[in-house]
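Q: Here's a chain of 595 amino acids. Please give me its 3D structure as tokens.
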Amino acid sequence: MKRTHHCGELGLEALGRSVTLIGWIDTLRDHGGIVFVDLRDREGLTQLVLDPGQLGVDLGYLREESVISVSGVVKARPQTTLNEHLKTGAIEVAVSSLTVINRSEPLPFPLEEEKAARVSEDLRLTYRYLDWRRPSQYQRLKLRHQAAKAVRNYLDLAGFLEVELPTLFKSTPEGAREFLVPSRLNPGQFYALSQSPQQYKQMLMVSGIERYYSLARCYRDEDLRADRQPEFTQVDLELSFIDREDIYALIEGLLAKVWQECKGMQIPTPFKRMPYQEAMDRYGVDKPDTRFGLEIKDFSECFRSSAFKLFAGAVEQGGVVKAFNAKGLADLTQGELKALETVAQSLGAKGLAFIEVEKGQWKSPILKFLSQQERDILTQSLSIEDGDRVFFAAAPWERACAILGRIRLEAAELLKARGRITIDPNRYDFLWVVDFPLILQDEKENRYVSAHHPFTAPVEEDKDKLLTAPHTVRGQHYDIVLNGMELGGGSIRIHDPELQRVVFQEVLKIPQATVERDFGYMLRAFHYGAPPHGGIALGFDRLAAVLSGTQSIRDVVAFPKTQKGQDLMVQSPGPVSAHQLRDLYITSTPVSRGG
């Protein structure tokens, strides 16, 4: 059964050679007694020519996706049947012997690319092993492998050690909801699956490792979406004796290497930098897509004394008035406009104020409240022309940014659908977003919380404001953004035990007993010569998805979960026996499915 070649290898140089191929039947075509088969393996297709009389085999027994082994001689195809799109398109194999290794049953869905794309994702996930037989899917897994190889090679040359860190961690008060794992050997005690190896990798720096990385498996019990899975992989890094500029240069080189190896593209470096405040003000989000305009502008001063009380009142209460020009979108349908208003309301807006300009005329429910001076300022600042539509948000700064940031993206999709914005699929706008706030105010809990995590070091010149004005302190936190997607994030860490204690207890108001329980070992370690250190984690699934040109990371994960966190192929999660629960000292309470 040993093959001599893969199905995608043979060309005219192999004419007259005896070969053995093994693979899956991709297609069967009966041409008046002579049967043509496209045989497929992971490397490609080879056309086979089968003569039933010569083979002495009932070819009616053959079925697509059956596994067969064939031997024969490589011959040139007739000129009229050449396939220039295949490496093997100039040859065919005249089969002299055939063995059916495993006959396939009828498929639950077709594997042809166009037909499979119309099949429900749930069905494809149920039969994931069939879905991966499609060449496009295989190429995604192969590209993911190439990216991982490029990452490892680059970091190895940069002096990093790959270190495996524990998956079973402990529950901590910061971060996303965790998956808990009961400990049979410690009744009533639980592990938490690691959300990120953050504390372990900092301990490696205290250990003197200096440069660590891993392709770390992480787990978060969050609601799922296209770019989120309950278990995911991140390229996790930590370095000692470095600053932010060192991290920027390292990651820019890493990503340039990955794009060169996987896409054959030269990515220009260094990447652009943008402060968090600027990103929010101009794009309404801290992960801006800078491939198109539609930039947001602030008109708070313009409307501070406006007769339009809604705008003036927002400014008087400490909020802002922001707007952007969705150029060329005056022709929105009522349905499209209603959908945008619903999006705005989901983010806390009472409605979505707008102005549309058609045939030189401004149209808007708010037009009667605007003075000529206000109209002139808007026209000049937003370059308003015929066919444009301007959207407004009047709210506290962060909410106004969020509303228009989302509406900007929705407007861009509508403009793309109308052919008025074109974005090159091979354009990659890398961007560092920097100077994030270190601390945020949690309105629900009425306390300060970490914007990133409590181990992030403050910007040196802001440290003296930690106790007096913590909300004004910037953190040494940085995000790498690509085309509107957060590809990764990290920070320079606190390594001074006293500063770390102040952040825990005096700024975040975490009780001392909680600090000792959850982070005591870390503070003790810092007393034994902790080096200055920092790191970053890149979402490897997102990276692979971008390289593959897909919007969903499920397309680059071998066996992903659905939005309900289910693996449809193996039917997990599933029930366990009472005996298993008893061993773990757990009782199960029936869940009511009623109202």
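Q: Can you summarize the key feature?
A: The domain at 292-417 is CATH 3.30.1360.30 (Gyrase A; domain 2).
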